[in-house]
Every structure is written in C-alpha cells, then in structure tokens.
Design goal:
There is one protein chain. The chain is mainly alpha-helical. It has one domain. The protein is built from seven helices and no strands. Helix 1 packs antiparallel against helix 3 and helix 4 packs across helix 5. The longest helix is centred in the C-terminal third of the chain and has 34 residues. It is elongated. The two termini are 24 Å apart.
Length: 130
C-alpha cells in the first residue's frame, strides 16, 4: 500500500485537512531531497531515528546544530560515510547552506510531529472502536 493510499484510508478517522497537509509535507520533503544540504539533514535524521528510535530526532538536531556552530558533533551512530559527508558539508557551512540546514531541521520536525498526530489519532480511534 502506498503512503498516499494509507493516509487516504485514515480520512474518516482523523479528518481530511490533516491528511492533505501531511501528504503535502511529505511531498515537499521528497522535493527538498534534491538539495544536497537538505538531503544530508534528512539522511542524518533518518539514520538517527533508525539507530536510536524516537530520541534520534533530537540527537540528529543537536548534531546538525553542533556542525553548523563549527563544533565536533557526537555522531558515532551514523555510518562512516554519512558522518564524513555531514562534517564536510556542514562544519564550515556559510550563509545559504546554514539557512537550508536549519530550514530542513525545522521542516522534518514539523512533518514528523504532524505524521505522529495522524498515527496516534488513528491508533486511539481504532482502540476505542474495539
């Protein structure tokens, strides 16, 4: 089942407006992945979540912020290639790259938050209907 189909199936439970916003956000994330800076932030976040679970979101955010500040991040959870790419791209980033990285961090937080709301509402609704 595709993401769109799965989200559409949730419409009766959580409301069409929230589903449409989540679909739009996911599409924007996909389009943003064409930008190397944003793609790296998304990759770091995905890697952190995969390795650390939900707390990975905050860990990745801190790693990106450390890199942008020129500090050595704690990214031992990342693959060597991803860690190397992150340091190379973000540690000496200036101007536009910093803006893009910060925007990507904010966007991924918003999208994950909204997607979480959709899933939690669906799960609660399903549990209440039993």
């Amino acid at each position: 089942m595709s993401v769109d189909n799965a989200l559409t199936a949730l419409v009766p439970i959580v409301g069409e407006a929230l589903i449409e916003k989540t679909q739009k956000d996911l599409q924007e994330l996909s389009e943003d992945a064409n930008d190397p800076t944003k793609k790296l932030v998304y990759s770091l976040t995905a890697g952190a979540i995969e390795q650390l679970g939900p707390e990975g979101i905050e860990v990745a955010k801190q790693a990106v912020e450390d890199l942008l500040a020129g500090n050595a991040p704690d990214i031992d959870w990342a693959s060597p290639r991803l860690a190397s790419d992150a340091v190379a791209l973000l540690q000496n980033a200036e101007g536009l790259k910093k803006k893009k990285a910060k925007a990507a961090l904010q966007k991924v937080g918003e999208v994950l938050g909204r997607a979480g709301v959709v899933l939690i509402k669906a799960l609660l609704s399903g549990a209440l209907n039993k």
